[in-house]
Amino acid sequence: MLVPGRAPEAVGAPVPAALRRLDRARLRRDAPLAPHTTFRIGGPADFLYIARSAGDLATAVLAAREAGLPHVVLGSGSNVLVGDRGFRGLVILDRAAARRWGPDGRLTAESGTSLGDLIAESVTRGWSGLEHFVGIPGTVGGALWQNVHFLAPAPARERTVFIAEVFESCEVLTAAGERRMVGPDYVRLGYDDSVFQHGDDVALAATFRLTPGDSAALRRVTDENLRWRAAKHPPLVECPSAGSVFRKVEGLGAGRLIERCGLKGLRAGGAQISPRHANIIVNLGGATARDVLALVERARGAVLERFDVRLEPEITLLGEFA
Question: Which run of H or of E encompasses 116?
Answer without folding.
Answer: helix 115-125
